[in-house]
## 1
Amino acid sequence: MAKKILVTAFEPFGGRTENPTLRVLETLRAPRGARLFKARLPVKGKAAGKKIESLLSRLEPDLLLSLGLAAGEAAIRVERFGLNIADYGIKDNAGWNPQGEKLDPAGPAAYAVTVDPSKLAAACRRAGAPAYVSNHAGGYVCNTLMYRAMRAIDKTGLRTRYAFIHIPVSTEMALKEKPGRNISPSLSLALMAAAVQSAIKEAAK
């Protein structure tokens, strides 16, 4: 039976009109012997958590890979832990702005991803993109998604393996930023797409 792989990306947020994770998602192809499912998620902590729980329940994927935007980064960042904390700093797209709240009072302090992040970072580098392992995804919606996904996998007993990759602003987006301001570090969409494709191939082994 073909492996089922689910990849998620986020809608635009933070005043931007696009999110490069969606553009990368469009390009992805299923590795040989696998079926690829794609999903767009809202940058709304509560809604994103509910949607990922629904997707996991419906698809029961063998692998779940989430993509997020880390504006200001100059490299691809592969995350290691999802933390039981919501500490946003800015409002999400629903206006929610929690300050140090637990995502699940009954849950553990953190979950470790179940796909080796060092191997995924190496796969991204083989594709020509700078990449490194980060210990956590911050306190915003990306971390909320990570924790909610792994909590759902834990509670339901699914055998789904999980990984999270943060990508920078795309060069195409950076070129649209107004001159005279600090331009965001960036990588081209083509390079990031190749890197994520390489990571999926590695994760699907």
Note: The first strand starts at residue 3 and ends at 10.
## 2
Amino acid sequence: MVGLVAVTVLGGFLTNRIRDGLVSERIGEVLRESARGASYAQSTFDQARPSTAADLQQRLYDVPRDLQSRGSGRPEVFFFRSPSQGSPVLVNDTATNQDLVALVGPGMRSAVQRDSAQQWQPVAVPPGRSPGVVVGSVVTIPGWGRYELYYLYDLSPEQSSLDLVQRTLGGGAIGLVALLGLLTWLVTRQAVQPVRSAARVAERL
């Protein structure tokens, strides 16, 4: 019983440490990558300086797909015009996957609008509600104002790695408990055997 409790506690501890390590490392990579992407997007718009709404619309279509191809795991990329802009612009927001736009919630957008520093939050990515993270920042397009740039990363590969570790630890724990049970039985048998032999001798006397 004590061995089973010890194995369970150790397995839980190792699983938590591995999970925290995987998630922390991946989020660090995601934040660095999205920061480089935002810098690249800003540089692209600074050089392009779109002069017409049609030109801007085309850039807003091309840049997210360029950023997606540069990102690890092909993240989804969204561009939204910041609502704080004064004059309306007849340009549509763009996304590499329109079905996932709703994952950039009002709270996340408000945080990015208040503070142009990089913001992020965890999300559940449909259809399987796999773990993910949204990273947002601000890009200023010359002559057109502030736009919000968002990355959506699916962390399913990290979850799969964690599931594999948990299955491996679980199988190892079962094997270890079985081994402890066998050792306990053998030790008990060896300890009891002399007593039984002495009892049989006493009975014959």
Note: Helices lie at 2-48, 53-70, 106-114, 156-204.
## 3
Amino acid sequence: MSQEKLTKLLESVDRALRSKSTENPWDEYVPVISKGNDHTVFLTEAFADPSMYNKLCYCLMNASEEDQFKLVINSLGGTLDSAFMITDAIVKSKAHVTAYLAGTVASAATIIALSCDTLETTDNLSFMIHNYSSSGMQGKGHEMKARQTFIDKELNKSFNRYYKGFLSQQEIEDVIEGKDIWLNSEEVMQRWHKRQEDTSLLKKAS
């Protein structure tokens, strides 16, 4: 992660801490606006500490089949643990979850987007997939090495799980090796529809 992105992430975390206890949902770090069974969620900051997403994950995990969630995503990414927490809640939710992508959707934000049931994009979308950054890792030398080895192994498995069918196997391997992949709105939707079609065919075949 570059110094500029790290600075933006720290600023976002600071804003999150200041707005953690607020009665106005629009002032929350992750606004969740509900009208009946329709819920609109704004993921428009860097992904901060997992605790900032407790309310969202609770709502998703306790939703019914009648609930509709729209996740408005415009984020450069951030903490992977938070992204994984949200994707797990999406996958386990009984609700229908739509990702509405605007602006720049990058890094961890792409994992959340591709975990939703439906995808919508805006014309000016910039969608970027890349490998994770290990900046900020602390500890003794042997501890850091062991942790790095574990993270590399597990995240490589995660990359194959989340991007399978959306990226080719060669593209996934290229990303793991450090390549950035940028896609526009049309390219994202083409890949999304192809993955949906392939998944549908596999289900029919089984």
Note: Residues 141-163 form the longest helix (23 residues).
